Amino acid sequence: MERTQLLELANKYGSPLYVYDTDKIASQYKRLTGAFNSVKSLKLNYAVKALSNVNILKFLTNLGAGLDTVSIQEVHLSLTTGIDPKNIIYTPNGVSLQEIEEVAKLGVQINIDNLSILELFGQKHPEIPVCVRINPHIMAGGNSKISVGHIDSKFGISIHQVPHIKRVVENTGMNINGIHMHTGSDILDIDTFLRASEILFDVAKQFKNIDFIDFGSGFKVPYKEGDISTDIEQLGVQLSERFNEFCTEYGKEITLMFEPGKFLVSEAGSFLAKVNVVKQTTSTVFAHVDSGFNHLVRPMMYDSYHHITNISNPTGKDRYYSVVGYICETDTFASNRRISEISEEDVLCFHNAGAYCFSMASNYNSRYIPAEVMVVNGKEYLIRKRQTMQDILHNQVVVDFAPKNKTKKEKVTA
After folding, report:
1. Which of 1, 146, 328, 346 could form a disulfide with 312 if both were Cys (CB 3.0 to 4.6 A apart)?
2. What is the pLDDT of residues 131-144, one digit of tens each?
3. Rounded CA separation 292/9 (Å)
4. Residue 14 is assigned to a ligand binding site
5. Is 218 marked within a binding site?
6. For the structural domain made of 269-387, what CATH number should be given?
7. Which residue spans adopt a coiled-coil conformation according to this UniProt entry (predicted)?
8. Where are the domains of the chain?
9. Residue 122 annotated in ligand binding
């Protein structure tokens, strides 16, 4: 989106503000489907947790995407779009059998990631097809907190426990219709996917009724000019060829699935914040914005880089700033960052703010969660109102626990 349009939106809806460019979402979706166009059956299930506004979900389902969910709440949210439940996959971690059973009643594809629940579910519901999440014991991801396929991870059933899965299937008569993995996020090396694919192919051929193999996602996107990213086109060529070979070996065409989140929406998002104060100290120039890690936690949680531009003064002389928030803790978005000269009330744009930004926002310090705007074919739509104090108080129950004043009765003597 153009700088002038972003400024107009910030002026109209206030700051901080999240803005999403659906043209970018659509182009990323088409790029990914195009990379795997030689596969007869391809399904992209958008990872709802990345950005869960129902309007974004509707936009993606209209493109043809299914939805990847991790909680029963995300399932219910997804169903509000009118999507066929069969196009939703549910991949929780460490949830109760009760929640999985409630989701199963909705007709959603179940994905189970531990032996205990697999056995319990199979004993009670052998008629319901189930996908299993495999831990391939591959370390992959841009940060230890988003690397989820290694041997010490809490996610998935170890590849060394496949004989146990087979025994559960034999004892319960349940049907395994899919094999799934997700090794981590921000994966650059396509060899990671290719090595993991061989592991999944080896697991899949041990089950007779596989309908799909889900390779997760984790494709890396660029965060700044000159940054490197996953070569989706090359991955498409190599993985598609191997997948088609496997289908021939397996004896039937199965579906190749991915669950992209960040790849589809990260670059589409812009986070706009206004500068409250420019503060010069003995060693640093701070630009304090009207936001903090309550609205954008990734730099603090994952050491993530977000490119920051001053859209109010794009041609100004470059200076070095530490961009910080207004939270009463250290909340540094960028340290010693080169940005065009900043003045108070300038609007800064944080790029790559579409994934895991708004969805991880909170009311810390009792600050309001920002508004969201979606731009479709150049037209803006407010898709979430900014919170108010009434919203913060909405579910709080005020209890009158103060002791009541009692009047002592005077003792009457004869």
Report:
1. 346
2. 999 988 875 444 34
3. 20
4. no
5. yes
6. 2.40.37.10
7. none
8. 22-262, 269-387
9. no
